[in-house]
Specification:
Dna Ligase, domain 1, about 35% helix, lipid biosynthesis, eight-stranded antiparallel sheet, globular, D-amino Acid Aminotransferase, Chain A, domain 1, single chain, Rossmann fold, about 25% strand, five-stranded parallel sheet, alpha+beta, 16 helices
Length: about 475
């Protein structure tokens, strides 16, 4: 059994993990960077250790300092949360080398699933549908062109070690592939230290559907249903919901079984997510596996009643899953809006600064995951997300109505946020019909901004500094 856990993260996810550890009677250690001495996660943990300067490379990405903090405080486990080192195999190995339980999958599994080309090959062998593309990496631009012309344009030239939209370029013809190969390879080398690329068919404006996986050390693997994460801006999710609206039970069952096969093929342990894209004809294709806890996991928790972080702690302690697949029940509907400190009129540029006034919503069916408070500073060094507002309802419409109320009840002054845009999306016809896809924001953003400005919202909120 675990005894003492270091949380190698910050913000709302660090707060969430610390709370779950406290509920499980586990001691906690927070780490923080200089300037974050009064961050909420440092105040909540039993101990807090400064691990370096404010730049991520000096602190939350500094493996040696984090391991030293865990060893010196007598921890026996590290929870990486999401982002930062959560999918870093070197970090997982460093934990293992220092007799620290990494609360996540094994380092070799992270490597295997982090290489998109190798993961595609594994999924094909496991009978999981993948997007048509190259068999393994392509080593020259001409080889990329040959693949593109076999599968047909448009295509994506993608980094094998990529993620978050980095090292990825669209190409619509031969010249585009040659240009994309050069640009994507250079970006991938810069961002990931690995310029290897592969080519796959571009499914235009698909739905982004993902399945939550839990797997223990005894070989038990289950899924907790799906989430629709198609409302995105620059490949970053803004709104998520569970279950996906308009899905047939047949499709849900097939995709869930494919997700479980994918995790089994990888020899996976702990929480993870199998991500698919789906076209207009309900054809679905594996795109990647996130070998960590997802930002949007709360919507799954709210419709299943399963505490995913608690299950992570159980799995890391060597215990079996607390439920079987037949025990999983989806009840009602849940939505999540990721509120980010960004200026929507400056192409969603990060908007760091001081929060002068803050009020979060409450009431039946409303949950807020956040680490900000009145007077706190939003750092320019880290991700701009400052809160997640989650609502539930017996039906999707009830959850939507509750989200409208929750967002309108939320007040954040001092920094610009995405909140007004997400509020207006709750009234969008395409969103209400559930017919939206990953092209939604590109298609509707200017319309939403015009409506917001016409209502006087720009002066009221987004000009605040």
């Amino acid at each position: 059994m675990l005894r003492k856990v270091l949380v190698a993260n910050r913000g709302e996810i660090a707060v969430r993990i610390i709370r779950e550890c406290m509920d499980a009677s586990l001691e906690t250690v927070a780490v923080y960077s200089k300037g974050e001495e009064d961050a909420l996660h440092t105040l909540m943990a039993g101990e807090a250790v400064c691990i370096g300067g404010p730049r991520p490379a000096d602190s939350y990405l500094n493996i040696d300092n984090i391991i030293s903090a865990a060893v010196n405080t007598g921890c026996d486990a590290i929870h990486p949360g999401f982002g930062f080192l959560s999918e870093n195999s070197d970090f997982a190995r460093a934990c293992e080398d220092n007799d620290l339980k990494f609360i996540g999958p094994a380092a070799d599994v992270i490597d295997m699933m982090g290489n998109k080309s190798a993961a595609r090959d594994m999924m094909k062998r496991a009978g999981v549908p993948v997007v048509p593309g190259s068999d393994g990496p392509v080593t020259t631009a001409e080889e990329a062109v040959d693949v593109a012309e076999q599968i047909g344009y448009p295509v994506l030239v993608k980094a094998s070690a990529g993620g978050g939209g980095r090292g990825m370029r669209r190409a619509d013809d031969r010249e585009g592939v040659i240009r994309a190969y050069s640009e994507a390879s250079a970006e991938a080398e810069s961002c990931f230290g690995n310029g290897e690329l592969y080519v796959e068919k571009l499914v235009e404006d698909p739905r982004h559907i993902e399945f939550q996986i839990l797997a223990d050390s005894q070989g038990n693997v289950i899924h907790l249903g799906e989430r629709n994460c198609s409302i995105q801006r620059r490949n970053q999710k803004m709104i998520e919901e569970a279950p996906a609206f308009g899905f047939s039970d047949q499709i849900r069952k097939k995709m869930g079984a494919a997700a479980v096969r994918a995790a089994e093929a990888a020899g996976y342990e702990n929480a993870g997510t199998i991500e698919f894209i789906m076209d207009d004809e309900d054809n679905y294709y594996f795109i990647e596996m996130n070998t960590r806890l997802q930002v949007e996991h709360p919507v799954t928790e709210m419709v299943t009643g399963v505490n995913i972080v608690n299950e992570q702690l159980r799995i890391a302690s060597g215990l079996p899953l607390s439920l079987k697949q037949e025990d999983v029940r989806i009840s009602g509907h849940a939505l999540e809006c990721r509120i980010a400190a960004e200026d929507v009129y400056r192409n969603f540029a990060p908007c760091p600064g001081r929060i002068d006034f803050l009020h979060f919503p409450a009431g039946n069916g409303v949950r807020v995951d956040s680490a900000v408070y009145n007077g706190c500073e939003i750092s320019p060094y880290y991700d701009s997300m400052i809160a997640k507002v989650i609502t539930t309802g017996g039906t999707r419409l009830e959850a939507v109505r509750r989200m409208r109320r929750a967002l309108e009840e939320t007040a954040i002054e001092g920094v610009s946020t995405t909140l007004p845009i997400q509020d207006l999306i709750m009234y969008s016809r395409d969103f209400l019909r559930g017919t939206y896809n990953t092209g939604y924001m590109e298609k509707h953003l200017q319309e939403i901004l015009d409506i917001y400005e016409a209502a006087g919202g720009r002066n009221e909120s987004t000009d605040r500094k």
